[in-house]
Amino acid sequence: MEILVCVRRVPDTSENEIEVNAAGNDIERNELVYSVNEADNYAVEEALQIRDRVGGNVTVVTVGGEDDEEVLRRELAMGANQAVLVSDEDFNGSDGRGIATILKDFVKKGRYDLILTGVQADDGAAQVGGMLAAMLDYPFASLVNSITVDGGKLKVGREIEGGNREINEIDLPCVLSIQTGINEPRYVGMRGIRQVASVPIPTLGVSNLGVEKDSVGEAAAKVRRVDYFVPALSKGADMLHGSREENAHTVFELVAARGGLK
Amino acid sequence: MVGIYSPSLSSEWLVPGRNLFLTIHVLGIACFAYIVAKRLVPLVRAESDPRFDRPLTRLGKVFKFWLGQWKHPRYRFAGALHILIFTGFLLLATRAFSVLIVGVSSGFVMPGLSGESGRVYDLITDYAATIVFLCMVVAAFRRLVFKPARYAVPAKYGKSRTGDAVFLLGLIAVLMVADSLFAASSAAGHARQDQPVEALAILSLPWMLKIAIGSMPLATLWVLNITAYLVHEVTFYFLLCYRPFGIQFHVETSLFSIYFSKLERGTLKPVRWDVPDEHLDQVKSFGVKTFEDFTWKHILDFYSCADCGRCADNCPANAVGRPLAPRFLTIKARDYGFHHYPVLGKANNGKPLIGGIYSEDEIWSCTTCGACEEECPLLVEYIDKIVDLRRGMIDDGNVPQSLQKPLKALENRGNPYGKMEKKKADWAKAEEFRQTSKVKTLDGNNSAGTLYFVDSITSYDDRMQSIGRSTSRILGHLGEDFGILGAAEKDSGHEVRRFGEEMLFMALRDHNTNAIKASGVKRIVTSDPHAYNALKHDYKDVPPVEHISQVIARKVRAGSIQFSRVENEDKVYAYHDPCYLGRHNQIYDEPRAVLDAIPGLKRVEMKRSRDRSFCCGGGGLMLFYEPKEEQRMGVLRVRMAAEAGANVIVTACPFCMVNIEDAIKVAGLEGKMSAIDLTELVDQHLIREVCTEKTDELETATCGG
Question: Cβ(B171)–Cβ(B239) under 8 Å?
C-alpha cells in the first residue's frame, strides 16, 4: 500500500512558554523549539505499522520552508521510505484551503492509496484533511483511532463524543485524520536522525507541482487571523478543606453531578 | 585372598581395578571437558570486554571476595554455612585428588603430604568432611523446612528450584559419606590385618563410621571399602559433569567471575568496548538485543549465579512489586543460554530477548541503585546489563511514551522539563535570596575558581531550588569563589545515559564539557549526587568534582565552620544515603560527620543504611516513568525511618527529596515526618557571625540564628 502522511512542524507547547508578541498578531517566535505535530507523529507511526503488515511505502510530506526539513528527517529516522518538502515563496501566507490545494496537487503527482493527516495541528484548525479529501473527491474519515486493512477497503474506528466508538468501512483511496492514542509512536533518538542525515529530501515548488498561483499564498487566503491573545485566567481551583472522608464524599458528588459516574 | 588393598589393586567383576578406575577418570574428565567447551561457545561469540588489565588488583579481589568470602557474612547464617562449606571444599580438594589417583596408582601420596604433615592433613580433612556433611544436612533442612523466603520462585518466573538444590546437597553429602567410609573401612581393615592403621580424627565422620563397622568381618569391610571408593568416584564425576547444568556451576566459575569482575564503581560500560565514541555512528546496532550481544563476562556472570536470592532480596523494584528481580534477570538468561546452546545438538540463537525472556517493563523498572551488585557474593554485574538492554530498546525505538517527552525535551532544551534555557538560573533571582547572596554566572564576563554545577532539577523544580540557594549560601559562607554556568548548563545526562540514550548523553556531555572548560574553573562542586557521579565517572577531561557534603565535612574537620544548636528536642534525625552518593561513590561518613557536628542533633540509623540503603524511587528520568508497582519505594523508605524512631529524614539528593516528600504524604505521615536536604539543614544552622561573647550554648545559637 502506498501511504502518504502529511505532517507539520509546530512549536511544542510542552517545551515552550508561548507568549503573544508585542504587535498582538502572533506569538513570540524567538527561542522557540519546534517538533513534529503530535497527532502527525501518530499518523506516521500508523502508516509504518500498516506498511509493515501489508507491504508498500510510506512517504511523508510537509508544506513549509527549509527549517521544516528537520521534522521530515525525524520521520525518515522513524522509518518512512521517503520524504518530500513542498516549498515555494508563493505558498507563504496560505490559509487552510491554500495548504489543502498545494497538497492536492502534490497527491495528484503521485499514486497514493491512503493519505493520513494528524487530527489537527497544535496551532491549526483541523481543516486541511477534510478539504484535501473534498478537493481530491476521496472519502474522508476524521478522528480515526484504529485502522484495519481489509482487502481493497479499510475498517476504521472513530471516537464518538462520550467515549463511544464506531467502526466504518471506507473505500480506498481515502483520506483519514488520525487521533492521538491510536498507537504508541516509536522513539527516535539522535542516533536515528544522524543515520538519515545524508538521505536526500527533494524540494518541490509551484512549477514542479503545477499549482495555480492564484489559488495559494496570502492573496488567495480567505481566512485571516485578526487577533491573538491569552485569555484572562478564570477563577482558580476550589480547595476542599474537610477531613479525608468528607473530601472524598464531596469529590464523588462533584464528579457524579457532572456525569462522570454512571 | 581377602584383605584391604588399594582400589587400584582390586578387581571388580573380573575387571582389574586400575583399568576400571582409569576408564572412569578418562570418561569423567572427557565428559566435563566437553561440557565446559560447549558452555564456552556463547562466550566466544559474545561481545568483547577488556578484563585482562591490572592483574594485581584483580588478584586482590580474588583474595577478598573468593578466598576471603567477603560478602557472605552479610547474611549471617547462610553466610557462615557457605564459608564452612567453601573452606571444607578447599581443604578436601587435595584429598579428593589423592583419593582419585589412588584408584590407578596404589600407594600414591600427594607430594608434601607424606609423613607427619600428611597425618595432620588427614585429621583436618576428616573434620572438613564431617563439617561439610553436617552443613549439607543443615542446608537441606533449611531449604525443606524453614524455606527462607528469598529462595521462593514466584510463578511468573518459573518453577521452584528447591528440588535441584536439595539433590545437589544430597550428592555432596553422599560424596562426604563415601569418602569417610572409604577412610573408615581402610582403617578398620588395616586394624584387623595388624597393619599400620591410619589415625582418624576423634568424633569425625570417618571415626564414627569406623566404630560402627569395626566389628564387621574382613570380607564385608573389603566390600564396603571398594564400594565406598566406587561411589565416591562415580559421584565425584557425576557432580563435576552435572554442575555446569545448574546453580553449582559457580564452584568452577566463581574464581574467574571474581577475577574478571568490574573494578570501577559508578561507571558504565561504553556501548562497545572495541569502538571509540567517535566511531559509534558506524555501529549497526546498539546495546543488547540478542543473547550474543552481551559481553563474555556478562555471560560468565549468568553461569556463576548461585541463585542465592540476595540481589532480589535487596532490590527495591522487587520489594514494591515491580516486574523485576535481578536474580531472575540472570536465571532467565542462563536458562536461555543453556537452551539455545545445548550440550548436545546445534546452537540456535539470535532471538530477541525483549519480548522473549524479558519484558519491557522489567528492564525499565530498575533505578540503577546498585543494591543487587552490592550484595552479590559473586560480584555479578546488573547495571551494565540493564543499561545495555535499554540501549537496545532505545535503538529499536521501543521507549514508553512517558519517557519520550522528557527525552525530546532534553534534546531540544537540555532539560527533561522542556523549560527555557534562559530560566535556568531563575532560582538565584528569588528576591529574599538576592538580598543576602549573589551568584555569579560564568558567562565570560565573570570568572571563578569553583563551579557550582546545579543540574536540571535543582534549577527548575520550585521545591528543589531551595537546595540551590542553600548550597550557594554555604559556599558563600565558606568564602568560596564560585559561580554557575546558568543558561549554558545543560542536564548532566546521568539518567539519560542510564536509560540507554547514549547519543543524547554524549551530546549533553560534550556541551557541558565545553561550557565547563570555557568557564576556566579549577574545580566543580555539586549538590546533586547524580550530577556528581556523571561528572566524576561519565565525563572526561573536566576539573575534579566534589559533592557539597564533602566540602562541608572538610570544613567541619578543620573546625572552620560552626553550627547553632538544634532547638527542638523532639526532633530525631535519620540520614538516608542517596544511592549515587553512598553505594556508587562510597560517601557514607561525610554527611554523617556534618550532621553529628550540629550540637544537640539526635541521630538514629535506619536498619537499612550505608551500603544497604534502600532506594527512594530513583532519580532523573525515573521520575517520569510510570512503573507497574504495588506501592512506592519511597513509602517503604519513609516507614523504615519511622521504624527507626526518626521524624526527620535528612538526605543529600534532590531526587531523594522529591520521592521522600511525596512518600510522606502517600504514607499519611504528614505532620509526623518531614524531609530536609543536608544543605538546607546546614544552612539553617550556620553561625554566620562570630560571637564575641560566648557565655553559653544557647547564646551561641541565638547569635548564629
Answer: yes
pLDDT of residue B668: 93
- Cα torsion for B385, B390, B396, B397, to the nearest 10°? 180
Q: How high is the pLDDT of residue B696?
A: 45
pTM: 0.92
Most confident of A7-16, A21-30, B1-10, B391-400: B391-400
Tell me: pLDDT of A261 over 80: no
Please state whether beta strands B450-453 and B523-526 pair in parallel, antiparallel, or not at all (unpaired).
parallel
| pLDDT tens for each residue of B181-210 | 999 999 998 888 888 888 889 999 999 999
Whether A241 is in a domain gets the answer no
How large is the average pLDDT for residues B106-119?
Answer: 80
Fold of B423-556: Rossmann fold (3.40.50)
The answer, yes or no, to whether residue B694 has pLDDT greater than 70, is: no
Binary contact (A189, B409; C-beta < 8 A)? no
Backbone angles phi, psi at B450, to 5 degrees: -120, 135
Residue B697 is predicted with a pLDDT of: 44
Q: What is the pLDDT of residue B698?
A: 44
Q: Which of A15, A16, A187 sits opposite B404 (nearest CB)?
A: A187
Q: What is the ipTM of this complex?
A: 0.88
Q: Do A187 and B398 touch (CB under 8 A)?
A: yes
Spell out which residues of chain A touch residue B399, defining contact as CB-CB under 8 Å.
186-187
Identify the weakest region by mean pLDDT among A136-145, B191-200, B371-380, B529-538.
Answer: B191-200
| A185 contacts in chain B (CB < 8 Å) | 401, 404
Average pLDDT over residues B245-263: 94
Residues facing residue B358 across a β-bridge: B354
3-state SS track over chain A: CEEEEECCEEECCCCCCCCECCCCCCECCCCCCEEECHHHHHHHHHHHHHHHHHCCEEEEEEECCHHHHHHHHHHHHHCCCEEEEECCHHHCCCCHHHHHHHHHHHHHHCCCCEEEEECCCCCCCCCHHHHHHHHHCCCEEEEEEEEEEECCEEEEEEEECCCEEEEEEEECCEEEEECCCCCCCCCCCHHHHHHCCCCCCCEECHHHHCCCHHHCHHHHCCCCCCCCCCCCCCCCCCCCCCCHHHHHHHHHHHHHHCCCCC
Q: Which residues of A touch B421 (CB under 8 A)?
A: 31
Q: How many CB atoms lie within 10 A of CB A161?
A: 6
Residue B43 cell numbers, joined: 562466550
Q: Give domain status of residue A88, yes or no.
A: yes
Q: Cβ–Cβ of A194/B507 closer than 8 Å? A: no
DSSP B357: T
Report the pLDDT value the prediction gives residue B15, as an integer from 0 to 100. Answer: 64
Mean pLDDT of B620-628: 94
Nearest by CB to residue A189, choosing from B412, B422, B501, is B501
Do domains B423-556 and B559-685 share one topology? The answer is yes
The span from the CA of B369 to the CA of B580, in Å, is: 7
Of A31, A187, A190, the CB nearest to B507: A190
pLDDT of residue B12: 61
Domain B282-395 CATH class label? mainly alpha
| Phi-psi domain of B413 (left: phi exceeds 0; alpha: psi -120 through 50; beta: other) | alpha
Q: Which domain holds residue A115?
A: 2-220
Mean pLDDT of chain B: 92
For chain B, percent helix, then strand, then coil, each to nearest 5? 55, 5, 35
Domain B559-685: CATH superfamily is: AF0625-like (3.40.50.10700)
Cβ contact (<8 Å) for B503 and A186? Answer: no
Task: Assess whether pLDDT exceeds 50 at residue A51.
Answer: yes
Within-domain flag for A225: no
The residues, ordered by sequence, that sit 6+ positions from B396 with a Cβ below 8 Å of its Cβ are A186, B289
Give domain limits for chain B. Answer: 15-44+54-245, 282-395, 423-556, 559-685
